[in-house]
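User: what does the whole thing look like in 3D?
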Amino acid sequence: MNLSEEELKRYNRQMMMDGWGEETQQKLKNSTVFIAGAGGLGSPVSIYLTVAGIGNLRICDFDSPDWTNLNRQILHDHTRIGTNKAESAKITLNRLNPSVNVEAFTGKITEETVDELVGDADLIIDCMDNFPTRYLLNETAIRKGIPLIYGSIWGMDGMVSFIDSPETPCLKCLFPEAPPSETFPVVGATPGVIGSLQALEAIKYLTGIGSNLRGYLLVWNGMKNEFRRYRVPKDPECPICGNNKG
Amino acid sequence: MAVKVRIPTPLQRLTDGKEEVEGKPGKLIDLIMDLDSRYPGLAERVSENGKIRRFVNIYVNEEDVRFLNAEETEVKDGDEVSIVPAIAGGRGI
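Assistant: Here's the predicted 3D structure for the full assembly of 339 residues, as structure tokens:
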């Protein structure tokens, strides 16, 4: 389906980017992205992908917003307390751009459900809060041959990486073991920074413009407003993507 | 000139809020133990029984020590050591 007059106006400023134009915008419209989590990171990620015109978003969260979420989870407001986060996300995103097809999934991401939830997405964006689910998404991404954009936050700090195993290391190469779980401090602008970087990585991948953080971990120190990039090699001993896998 | 060690925010409670501290050149594990004598508790957060915890990445001049010589990696004067623990956060509870 071609872009409507309204869409051509809506995306005008981004189509001005070198190498973008109508054809690339159409490519975005035909793309599908799976967003795991509609919280701190899932909010900016889904908002920026929606306004950029990614045609199909599959967003998944089993939880519902509470007051302690509202300093950062800008998809939701106090009137949505008690509503499922994925459903709440869909309401917000539909308002921002009705031409995007948003599917809300309200179940948990588990070994049993993950394949169906991810479906035939072109990309997975990991906006989770726990490593077991992050590892599960990592394995699913590898099995389906879909890239995954990892992001996480703590306080005013965060990190991002673009995972496309076997070409790049996988999440298990990057962090072989899960850190202990905790309720951590966070300022809303932090997932704003990291989620926006994840969205930009997604847009670059889908448009083919620019380059992704392949084989690198980008670490942001918000206290000092400083970015550092670390090289992440593939781990030949990785149980998920290494020589001795499975 | 000493070794510059970057402390991640969650561990700065142990270093009196310092984001950077000075370390002693030598084996990485000895540097960590030496820091622990000045900032008690630091070694336990990044290592266990003399091994770096597997959810903590340590980079010497931007290279992950797991792919160098792990705990035995030699750190020289002027090197920069960054401690980067995995963080689970994103969706937020």
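In plain terms: The beta strands of chain A are 32-36, 56-60, 101-105, 123-126, 148-154, 157-163, 216-221, 226-231. Chain A has one domain: 31-231.
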